[in-house]
Design brief:
One of its GO terms (biological process) is serotonin biosynthetic process. By secondary structure, the protein is α/β, with parallel strands linked by helices. It has 14 helices and eleven strands. Bound molecules: pyridoxal-5'-phosphate.
């Protein structure tokens, strides 16, 4: 493909993408394929001779689309949203064209510098405490990670390194493995599974702190666990608190947990993967009260801020904590402008070496929407969730299972778990809308998350009509 053909195919692809998104509602949101469906549709080996572009595009419809779950359909209410917007897609195209690998400042100065400034812009949009803003001389700063999971892992590993050094400064005779075997990390029972995985990868023990009736971590029990663990010779070093849990969008009480962590010299990482985007709105900022106690904070603009995957924003209070933990410097990666207030080498802030020019997506989206446009977007989704909540509340057969704070509604049919499982099965099978369940206090609960950029009030009403119709059919059956 030469530049001339690329121009033509590029225009065609833009049309294909716009058509796909404009007509996405005509497709079933959830695919109807069996595992292994794809292998039989394409050859078992790569072609020896080049093929034609037309043939490939034909196969997109024949092979790919039947197996796609359409996350950007306005009838998609599963998981949490994944961001998408035209400006972000265009910026990603440019990112692909520049195609730099921005592991150090010198490897592509614009890639590094735009990222630092965009994380400052975003941090200021949220009104994060000053310590997280890089500026030109700040001790903290932001970085784009691929996912919230990586951010949690980075925070845990940095905390682990800091804890080992701290113990060794007082007891130089203690070996690293001896110390690591005593380290304990904590999180709530409602934390995302990636938090537990971070501890598995980091090779440290993690304990789950029980929740209260609102699914928030209980600080009194946390404190008690710390006392018992310290008395048992263990070393508490890390807490991952969640703002907006995945199951029910619950918030851990940072104003209680923060001071405990600070006085115990434990690292406090705050995972706000979904909810963080809402903090650009002043009315939702009270939900992150206590953020000033955190050592690191992370949320996913790729979830709810109109930026296509991947873009997970992470801020640290002290950049030296994170850089110091992972610095390895072979000669081929060194450059003349070594780390200073102005020069950031982001490879020290993350697990891989390579990194894409992801801040372009932020720059395009922030400028084209403006903070006001982004705030309006968040508010619209929250209003749609409230609308769905009131539809559920008006139907006595159903109950709401957790406070609706942002764009997620947890609900169920009053009755057995089996009944609710049967309802979800029907919803999934009909493929008109897509939902996933969660478990709250041993109960099988349906999660309704407002996800797509194009979801409107009539989609919410349509979805509810569909759910009540399937409920009607289900309750007609004699076995219930
Ligand atoms: C979605 C989610 C995650 C995982 O996000 P990734 O970016 O896919 O790793 C982590 N924590 C919470 C609370 C989430 O909702």
């Amino acid at each position: 493909m030469d530049a001339e053909e690329f121009r033509r195919r590029g225009r065609e692809m833009v049309d294909y993408v716009a058509d796909y998104l404009e007509n996405i509602e005509k497709r079933h949101v959830y695919p109807d394929v069996e595992p292994g469906y794809l292998r039989s549709l394409i050859p078992s080996e790569a072609p020896e001779e080049p093929e034609s572009y037309e043939d490939i595009m034909k196969d997109v419809e024949r092979v790919i689309m039947p197996g796609v779950t359409h996350w950007h359909s306005p009838n998609f209410f599963a998981y949490f949203p994944t961001g998408s917007s035209y400006p972000a897609m265009l910026a990603d195209m440019l990112c692909g064209a520049i195609g730099c690998i921005g592991f150090s400042w010198a490897a592509s100065p614009a890639c590094t510098e735009l990222e630092t400034v965009m994380l400052d812009w975003l941090g200021k949009m949220l009104q994060l405490p000053e310590c997280f803003i890089a500026g030109t001389s700040g001790q903290g700063g932001g970085v784009i990670q691929g996912t919230a999971s990586e951010a949690t892992l980075m925070a845990l590993l940095a905390a682990r390194c800091k804890a080992i050094r701290s113990v060794q400064s007082k007891h130089p005779e203690k070996s690293e493995s001896d110390i690591v075997s005593k380290l304990v990390a904590y999180t709530s029972e409602q934390a995302h599974s990636s938090v537990e995985r971070a501890a598995l990868i980091g090779g440290v023990t993690m304990k789950k702190v029980p929740n209260d009736h609102r699914y928030s971590l209980r600080p009194d029990v946390f404190k008690q666990m710390l006392e018992e663990d310290k008395a048992g010779g263990l070393i508490p070093f890390f807490l991952c608190a969640t703002l907006g849990t995945t199951s029910s969008c619950a918030f851990d009480p940072l104003t209680d947990l923060g001071p405990i962590c600070n006085s115990e010299k434990m690292w406090l990482h705050v995972d706000a993967a979904y909810a963080g985007s809402a903090f650009i709105c002043p009315e939702f900022r009270p939900l992150m009260k206590g953020i000033e106690f955190a050592d690191s904070f992370n949320f996913n603009p790729h979830k709810w801020l109109l930026i296509n995957f991947d873009c997970s924003a992470m801020w640290v209070r002290k950049r030296t904590d994170i850089i110091g933990a992972f610095k390895v410097e072979p000669l081929y990666l060194k450059h003349e402008n070594q780390e200073s207030g102005l020069v950031t080498d982001y490879r020290h802030w993350q697990i891989p070496l390579g990194r894409r020019f992801r801040s372009l997506k932020m720059w395009f989206v922030f400028r084209l929407y403006g903070t006001k446009g982004l705030q309006a977007y968040i508010r619209k989704h929250v209003a749609l969730a409230k609308e769905f909540e009131s539809l559920v509340r008006a139907d006595k057969r159903f109950e709401i299972c957790a406070e609706v704070i942002l764009g997620l509604v947890c609900f169920r049919l009053k009755g057995t778990n089996e009944l609710n499982q049967a309802l979800l099965k029907r919803i999934t099978k009909s493929r008109e809308i897509h939902l996933v369940p969660c478990q709250l206090s041993g109960r099988f609960v349906l999660r309704f998350a407002v996800c797509a950029r194009t979801t409107e009030s009539h989609h919410i009403h349509q979805a509810w009509r569909h759910i009540t119709q399937l409920t009607f059919e289900l309750l007609q059956e004699p076995c219930h």
